[in-house]
Amino acid sequence: VLETFDSEGIGRHVVAPVWGNATPEQRDRFQAVFKKALINTYIERFFDYDGESLKTVGTRAANEGAVIVQSTVATPSGTDRYNLDWLVVSRDGSQKFFDVVIDGVSTTETTAQDYQSVLRNSGGDFDRLIGLLEKKNP
Amino acid sequence: MTTRLFTHQQSSGNGILLCCILLLIPAGGCASQESDVAINDPFEPANRKVHDFNTSVRMNVLEPIGKAANAAGLTPVRQVATNFFSNLGAPLVALNDLSQGRPCAAGVTASRFLVNSTVGVAGLFDVAEDQLALEGHDNGFAQTLSVWGVPAGPYIVLPVLGPSNARGVVATATEAAAAVDPLAVAFPNNTATAGIDNGAGIFLAATDIDTQSALTKLENSSLDGYAALRSAHQQAEVEAIKPPECPFFKSEELAAAQ
């Protein structure tokens, strides 16, 4: 799972407001725990989707050479379908996922707002965010 | 259909809705100038309390009911009830489509209503989608206000119903006050129909395992579940006013684009 996602790019993006002022140690610690958090997030949110119901419906170009692969998947009850858009970016010569958008709700953006709320509520304390992530993703 | 996390059933019990709304309309809550993109949450402390309450209701009441209903094989019953009530709501959807300047979407909704009301046995079966690939979409006064440029206003978490904003609360209150609910229009002042309507609304909401599981997954995979849901709601609001695909004119549009 990890190799197909642009974990470092997503990681920088979701903590963008504090990334610039972070120390190299903080950045390394964050990226190490964010890899785990990313896997856990996608496992938690997608584990009960029926892979066989996944259907690709098309592709379209996005900003900066990225490509969006559009698909649909059955909801857990099987009575409806979600639209899943996979945002694929080029990273170091290979194609990687940057985001999965479910019915217009971006996983990456939701994560960014989640982390930035934690940062705001702690006065921008990056170490506290990293600590919470390490506790949640041991 | 879009944004299942937040779509409320057409029939979700006007009485219940109204009581929630009356309790929660904030004084001056509609005066906000903020754009939809920035976080506009002046009631965050109160909203967080309601969010925690909703999470607890979902985990302790709704999810056990939803899982039991699903295990008891009620999912097809639920599907039929959903079809029936969303078909009853179709004229209102078409009205909102038109109010938003979307004649094609209104045409799809009207065609679906005609087909499903007849061949689909009074709306019990979605023949239009299953046989004619005429996919339905949701629409309401909240989306119309949004398309008309009315700002979202402050974020408001409603008890049980979940995320909304001042615009959504005003829209829901307007719909409830105008008694645009189709069953209520057909049978005004009829206690039995009102009872069926409210009962069905509660049944559909309580057994909506897709929404329940999506909300629980979001909560479990976030550090701050409140902030994650607020963001998801904000994005879903933007998605909800995108024009639905037009199957009638798709080929012409493609031809014109090339």
Describe the structure.
The complex is a heterodimer of chains A (138) and B (258). Chain A is of the alpha+beta class. Chain A has five helices and five strands, in the order αααβββββαα. The longest helix of chain A is centred in the first third of the chain and has 23 residues, at 24-46. The model of chain A has no long low-confidence stretch (mean pLDDT 92). By secondary structure, chain B is mainly α. In chain B, 62% of the residues lie in helices and 3% in strands. Chain B is built from 13 helices and two strands. Chain B has helices at 14-24, 44-71, 75-88, 90-99, 103-118, 127-132, 141-147, 166-177, 182-186, 191-206, 209-220, 225-240, 250-257, and strands spanning 155-158, 162-165. Chain B has a two-stranded antiparallel ribbon. The longest helix of chain B is centred in the first third of the chain and has 28 residues, at 44-71. Chain B starts with 13 loop residues before the first helix and ends with a helix.
Quickly describe the structure.
Chain A is of the alpha+beta class and 138 residues long.
Distance between the termini of chain A: 18 Å
Shape of chain B: globular
- How is the quaternary structure best described? heterodimer
Overall morphology of chain A: globular
Q: What kind of sheet is the major sheet of chain A?
A: 5 strands, antiparallel
Overall pLDDT level of chain B: 81
Which structural class do the helices and strands of chain B define? Answer: mainly alpha
Provide the β-strand percentage band of chain A: 25-35%
Q: Quickly count the helices of chain A.
A: 5
Largest sheet of chain B: 2 strands, antiparallel
Radius of gyration of chain A: 16 Å
* Biggest interface pair, counts: A-B, 32 and 34 residues
How many H/I helices of chain B? 13
Our measurement of the CA-to-CA distance between the termini of chain B, rounded to an integer number of angstroms, reads 28 Å
Mean pLDDT of chain A: 92
